[in-house]
Amino acid sequence: MRRYAVYGGSFDPIHAGHVSMIRRAVELGYYVIIVPAFRHAFGKQSAPFAHRVHMCRLAFDALLPARVCDVERRLATDDDQPVYTYDVLRHLRDRLRQPISLLVGPDIAAEWHRWHRHTDIDREFGRLSLPATHAVRSSDIRRQLRQGVPPASLGGMLPEAVAAYIAGQGLYR
Long-range pairs for 146-153 at CB < 8 Å and ≥24 separation? Predict the structure, then answer.
């Protein structure tokens, strides 16, 4: 039976820390489903969803077994409510008909109590918690890009294809 781990986030932009987390889950035998957030549950503003999905696909084209899933767009309602992780996990479990876990990094531990139905997620799905190996934050990348740092110079922080896409689209200026 295939083991699935769902890794959700803003991915604004996807960076080396995210890539490292997913690679480690794959090395542990998980098939990772990457789920960019359509609307952030805590109201954070992000780059357009289509750009974030595309950057995730660029980062993971060569990384199998993993795939990017835009399920949050399909689950979103017209009332500007966020799509909650619990609902994504239930939808994917029902669609796959397999058990799934939520892949999380250490940054989630401090805010886990704020998550919608976090105790239900723990009980029904469980969490695969992996330590950070790259101290990279999307907010630091966005700040540097707004300050005029060329995306290509952030090579240790961003996958090369993602940096080229950001430059080509003029994101985070």
Answer: 146/172, 146/173
Where do the structural domains in the chain lie, given as residue ranges? 3-135
Say if CB 17 and CB 132 are below 8 A apart: yes
74-102 b/e (C-beta count within 10 Å ≥ 16 → b)? eeeeeeeebbbbbebbbebbeeeeeebbb
| Three-state secondary structure readout of 6-43 | EEEECCCCCCHHHHHHHHHHHHCCEEEEEEECCCCCCC
- Give the pLDDT confidence of 47-71 residue by residue, as tens digits: 999 999 999 999 987 667 899 999 9
CA 126-82-4 angle, to 5 degrees, is 30
Residue in the structure block whose two tokens are 């109201």: 43
Report, at the CATH architecture level, how domain 3-135 is classified: 3-Layer(aba) Sandwich (3.40)
Task: Determine if the pTM surpasses 0.85.
Answer: yes
